[in-house]
Each structure stands twice: as C-alpha cells, then as structure tokens.
C-alpha cells in the first residue's frame, strides 16, 4: 500500500515528536510492505515567520490532496511570543481552526487510557487509579462557540465582547452518529455531556442525541451536565466509555482527561470527516520551554500515527503493532522525563522513538 501524508511539524516540540512518529511509521512500512510518502508543509508560528500567514492556500491545497495529515503542535508562549501581538485571525491557532474547517474535520476523537505501568503517575488517589480507565472523548470540532460570530466594541464608554454559540440539528446529528458507531464496537455506553439546564444549544443537543439513540437500541445512553462530568472524571473515571460533547466542553474535558493519564504527552488525537480522511495530532501543546532539548514525550504523537493507520488507512494490524510496541517499552521501564520516577530508565525523545520503532 502507498499513502501520501502531509506532515506539519509545527512549532516548539512539534518537529521533535513528529520526527519520531515518522521513524515509527517507516518501521511499520518496512515490516508490512507499505510506503508512506511525506510532504512537509508549514502551519502555525513557523508559517507566520516564513509567509506572514498561519496557513497559506498552497499548504492547504497540499493537505487537501493528501490521504491524511500528521500534525505536531503549533503556537508558542502567549505572554512572550510576538505571534500573539497579531490580530486573532493572524495568530498560530487561526491556522488550526482554518484547516479543520476547510478539511471538514467535524469529529475529534481523544482516547484516554491509563497504562498499568503509569498508575503511579496518575494524580488521582490510589484507590481510584487502581481501577484504571479506558475512554474516548468524541468532540464536535467545527461548530459552537469557537466558530460563531464574535466582536468587541465600545458601548457607553466601555468595551463589550460577545461570542455566539450556534449549533444546527445536522451538526449535532452527524457527530452523535459517529459517537454511537464508536460505542457499538467498544463497551456500548455513551455519556452525552451538555449544559441543558441553562443553554438552548444544549437542549437542542440533548434532543437530537435522543433521536439518534433510537437507531442504536444496543447502546446505553446517559446525559450528564458538564460541571458534573468534570467532577466525575476525577472522582470515578472508570465509569466512562464514550463521552460525546460539543466543541468547547470537549476541549476542556479532554485536557482534564489527559492529565489523569499521568501526562498530556500520552494522549493521542484524531480529527475526522465523513470519509476516511483525517488529521492526527497529540493533544498537548507546543511546550516551547522544552523545545529543542530532546526531552519531550513523543508517545502521544506516535499513538496518533497509529490512529491514522487505523481510521484513515484501515491498517488495524499495523496500528495494533504500534500500540503494543508502546506497551512493551513502558513495561520494560523506559520513560521520558514527564513520566519518570526513581528506578525507571530515563530516555530522551529520540531514544524513545528508537525503542518503539525497534519493537514494532
């Protein structure tokens, strides 16, 4: 099999963790007789530096013509980076919003799994972490507050800002269907998260999810308010299987879920549209404070590569091989600094990539 992958290494630690992911993908290709062709494009701060835009039309065209996109992290330190002195539509994150919208990537999948070997890194109390957890957050990605009309203007001598949170029935229905299909091949349970006691958009969300649920009688559905779900993620994360929610709630809850895995460096992510095309990235940020030091954890990005093989290329056996290689390396005690404790074998970013590639 031959596949064309658009590679966006991005900013901060992005180039380091993406390079290790490409190394692992090449190991998969060699073992299973696949060829992955990479075309590198710029997005984020590095694109602003080179072209004055967070994402050029030329880069977007290359992404659209590829079979999938592999992304590192974009942006920098919001308090010191000159990029954040620019208008919002010129900042690094504007490129990410643009590529999601232009590629039609409406479904964001973020698995959160606690490896037994990392139970000590979980910040939850021992009795809670001992249960373990294995969930996937399905977040609507191209609607809601982040894509509604916004403005800041002066009214009666003071600045007033507004952001519109808008969802249509069709937007909610397509993400709900995606979540139910995923639940059907997992443990057949969906927790739909909203704020239906306050927001009209959430009441519509709950109505549409209930309508979709009628087509999936084998899947258990519960509704949970977002503030309660944030508490339950800490108190009893093992209760969750598939968590379905809207854009902003999903953004916040998936970061919370990442931290109870022990490190945000462990959490992969896939953004999908209706067909097989997807964009794959780690859930963490660009971590400019450790960029270039060869200490970042590449596992989240490597696992995102495994998701690409599974969801975009239907290479389930190859995806399993990467995921098993990660488990093997962790069982052998190898750790990057973010998950290291006394007695472990501390390794660098590149060494972790080498270890995982060698065990594919």
Automatic annotation (TrEMBL):
Which residues does this entry assign to the site Important for catalysis?
146, 195
Q: Which Pfam families match?
A: Iso_dh
Residues binding substrate are 100, 110, 139, 227
Q: Which residues form the Isopropylmalate dehydrogenase-like domain?
A: 4-356
Task: Name the pathway.
Answer: Amino-acid biosynthesis; L-leucine biosynthesis; L-leucine from 3-methyl-2-oxobutanoate: step 3/4
Q: How is the cofactor bound?
A: Binds 1 Mg(2+) or Mn(2+) ion per subunit.
Database matches in InterPro entries: IsoCit/isopropylmalate_DH_CS (IPR019818), IsoPropMal-DH-like_dom (IPR024084), Isopropylmalate_DH (IPR004429)
The record lists Mg(2+) as bound by 227, 251, 255
Q: Does the keyword Oxidoreductase apply?
A: yes
- Superkingdom, natural source: Bacteria
Q: Which UniProt keywords apply?
A: Amino-acid biosynthesis, Branched-chain amino acid biosynthesis, Cytoplasm, Leucine biosynthesis, Magnesium, Manganese, Metal-binding, NAD, Oxidoreductase
Q: Where does NAD(+) bind?
A: 285-297
- UniProt xrefs under Gene3D superfamilies: Isopropylmalate Dehydrogenase
Write out the GO MF terms.
Answer: 3-isopropylmalate dehydrogenase activity; magnesium ion binding; NAD binding
A GO BP annotation: L-leucine biosynthetic process
Catalytic activity, as annotated: (2R,3S)-3-isopropylmalate + NAD(+) = 4-methyl-2-oxopentanoate + CO2 + NADH
Principal location = cytoplasm
Q: Where in the sequence is the signal peptide annotated?
A: none
The record ties this protein, via HAMAP family, to: LeuB_type1 (MF_01033)
The family classification in the record reads: Belongs to the isocitrate and isopropylmalate dehydrogenases family. LeuB type 1 subfamily.
Please name the NCBIfam families in this protein's record: leuB
The subunit structure is: Homodimer.
Describe the task this protein carries out: Catalyzes the oxidation of 3-carboxy-2-hydroxy-4-methylpentanoate (3-isopropylmalate) to 3-carboxy-4-methyl-2-oxopentanoate. The product decarboxylates to 4-methyl-2 oxopentanoate.
**Listed name of the protein:** 3-isopropylmalate dehydrogenase
> What is the organism field in this record?
Sharpea azabuensis
The gene that this protein is the product of is leuB
């Amino acid at each position: 099999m031959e596949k064309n992958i658009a590679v966006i290494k991005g900013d901060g630690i992005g180039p380091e963790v993406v390079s290790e992911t490409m190394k692992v993908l090449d190991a998969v290709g060699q073992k299973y007789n696949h060829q992955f062709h990479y075309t590198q494009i710029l997005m984020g701060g590095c694109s602003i530096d080179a072209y004055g835009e967070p994402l050029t039309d030329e880069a977007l065209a290359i992404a659209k013509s590829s079979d999938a996109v592999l992304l590192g992290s974009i942006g920098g330190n919001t308090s010191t980076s000159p990029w954040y002195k620019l208008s919002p539509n010129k900042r690094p994150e504007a490129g990410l919003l643009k590529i999601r919208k232009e590629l039609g990537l409406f479904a964001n999948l973020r698995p959160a799994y606690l490896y037994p070997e990392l139970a000590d890194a979980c910040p939850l109390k021992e009795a809670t972490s001992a249960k373990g957890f294995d969930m996937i957050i399905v977040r609507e990605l191209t609607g809601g507050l982040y894509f509604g009309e916004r403005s800041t203007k002066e009214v009666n001598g003071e600045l007033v800002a507004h952001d519109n949170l808008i969802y249509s029935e069709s937007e909610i229905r397509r993400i709900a269907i995606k979540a139910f299909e995923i639940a059907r091949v997992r443990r057949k349970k969906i927790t739909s998260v909203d704020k239906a006691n306050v927001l009209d958009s959430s009441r519509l969300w709950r109505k549409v999810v209930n309508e979709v649920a009628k087509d999936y009688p084998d899947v258990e559905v519960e509704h949970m308010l977002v503030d309660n779900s944030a508490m339950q993620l800490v108190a009893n994360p093992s209760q969750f299987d598939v968590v379905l929610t809207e854009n902003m709630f999903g953004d916040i809850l998936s970061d919370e879920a990442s931290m109870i895995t022990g490190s945000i460096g462990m959490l992969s992510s896939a953004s999908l549209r209706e067909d097989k095309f997807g964009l794959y990235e780690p859930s963490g940020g660009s971590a400019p404070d450790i960029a270039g030091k060869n200490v970042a954890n590449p596992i989240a990005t490597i696992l995102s590569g495994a998701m690409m093989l599974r969801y975009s290329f239907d290479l389930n056996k190859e995806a399993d091989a990467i995921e098993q290689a990660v488990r093997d390396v962790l069982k052998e005690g190898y750790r990057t600094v973010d998950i290291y404790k006394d007695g472990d074998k501390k390794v660098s970013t590149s060494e972790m990539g080498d270890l995982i590639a060698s065990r594919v």
